[in-house]
Amino acid sequence: MTLFKKKGDFASNWMIMLLDLGLSCTASLIAILLMRWMSEPFFGFQKFTLLWLLFSGIASFIGFYLTKTYMIVIRYSNFNAISALTKATLIKELLLGICILLKLIGSGHTRIDIFTLVLDALFSVFILIIVRVVMIHILKTNALTMDKNIERLRVIVYGTSIKSIAMVARLDESPHYDIIGFITDNAAMDGQIINGRKVFAYKDRGELALLREQQGIECILYANEDKEEVQKHELIDLWLELGIHILVAPKIEDVRFGNMNQKAVKEITADVEYIADGMGRFGRISKRIIDCIISSICLVVFSPLFLIVYIAIKLEDGGPAIYKQERIGRFGRPFYIYKFRSMRTDAEKFGPALYSGENDPRLTKVGRFIRAHHLDELPQLYNVFRGDMAFIGPRPERQYFIEQIIEIDPRFYYLFQIRPGVTSYATLFNGYTDTVEKMVKRLKYDLYYLRHRSLAFDAKILFMTFCSIAFGKKF
């Protein structure tokens, strides 16, 4: 079984091996540090740590290789992944135990060595299994397969003209497209097959939205090279509203999955350049994995705090502690955002209203405190774990306010390409928004983030947010 990527695989085997090795060594380091914290100091701790990590890496590699855990993640069910990783960990600990008996590693204290070995096993199994199960869940959720077309963008071609048919023939040569078929408003063409591609006819907006969901359309291609004519097309606003990319007569090399060539994706509804997601496919999958892991850990770590806040809210007025509200997320899909209730239960009896700051008369006593310390946002960890939100991204809004923003700046539609976030780049500089005008101003920061987002940029925003909260900055 090779450690190198096979044609059609979702991920390289050596990448999975490196990831598992890194996690295994991290587990060993955590075990060593915990042992050191719980035991008496002993001579040669640094040497003990370095040798343990070195042999841990070697033993882990042998265990992973023998149990073939380095194979492609998506091929495993959760049970198979857990079984293989558990066996690999047992092999690792057995080899480390042999090294201790041979005195290749060790502290010189039998109790400390055994204690470290047990902790190493526990942390290794826990960390490896959690990460692997999360990866499998994410990959299955995103319907990724082992098919060789995994990196292709699912597109549909507008119209059945000779130009459209010719463009499909030309783009068939590209490894970046999965062409679903043609779409037209000509009902007589519905269901016909052209060059092996089905023709879909639509009657109204509802049918287009349903077609997008059923076929997983990510992009629409216009064969017409006249941009001004395409700008006037009646469906342009709808495509943008549904979060679908638009390309006009693209070349074969113009599009890659989630990483569009800026020359090819110009703004259709105005003279402004179309703003595509700046993060590539690998970055998006990595970001989702990181969000899922961190949110699951935080849900466990902060569970006592959840309980304290819940009880405090209940004791104050007896009302519900958790407040949910419909927001609009990725692809324009509604979802429920969860928060600890910080206002009176009748806070919006006169209709939707924005939070106006710490002096908002609708705040309860407990609510004013948890708002000031951002504790009301804690339940959003569940939204992140579910995939409704990310840690970093534009703040989600209600449809009521989105409609007002779009009337002023239609570019808000571009934000539907990505998941909304618990915190955002805009929040650092624009704070909470209590007017539509501030929302429009915030949109500029959100669009900047959309264009430039990356894992490094996310880490920077997260660090700046942490510093702002630690130093008491009011958002």
Explain what this protein looks like in three dimensions:
There is one protein chain. This protein has 16 helices and 10 strands. It has 475 residues and is α/β, with parallel strands linked by helices. A 6-stranded mixed sheet has the order 3-4-2-1-5-6. The chain is flat, with a radius of gyration of 27 Å. The termini are far apart.
What distinguishing features does this structure have?
single chain; 475 residues; alpha/beta; six-stranded mixed sheet; two-stranded antiparallel ribbon; 16 helices; 10 strands; 50% helix; flat; disordered N terminus
- Note the gap between the termini: 54 Å
Taken from the alpha-carbon principal axes, the silhouette is flat
- Class by helix and strand content? alpha/beta
Rounded mean pLDDT score:
77
Count of helical segments? 16
Which strand order does the major sheet show?
A: 3-4-2-1-5-6
Q: How many individual β-strands? A: 10
Radius of gyration: 27 Å
H-E order: HHHHEHEEEHEHHEHHEEHHEHEHHH
Low-confidence stretches: 1-11, 143-150, 251-272
Q: In what range is the share of β-strand residues?
A: 5-15%
Care to give the gist of this entry?
This protein is an alpha/beta fold and 475 residues long. Helices cover 50% and strands 10% of the residues.
Helix-strand blueprint:
Layout: H1 13-38, H2 45-67, H3 78-101, H4 110-141, E1 153-158, H5 162-171, E2 177-184, E3 193-194, E4 197-201, H6 205-215, E5 219-222, H7 227-231, H8 236-241, E6 245-248, H9 281-301, H10 303-317, E7 322-328, E8 334-340, H11 365-372, H12 380-386, E9 390-392, H13 399-408, E10 421-423, H14 425-430, H15 436-452, H16 455-470
Parallel strand pairs: 1-2, 1-5, 2-4, 5-6, 9-10
Antiparallel strand pairs: 3-4, 7-8
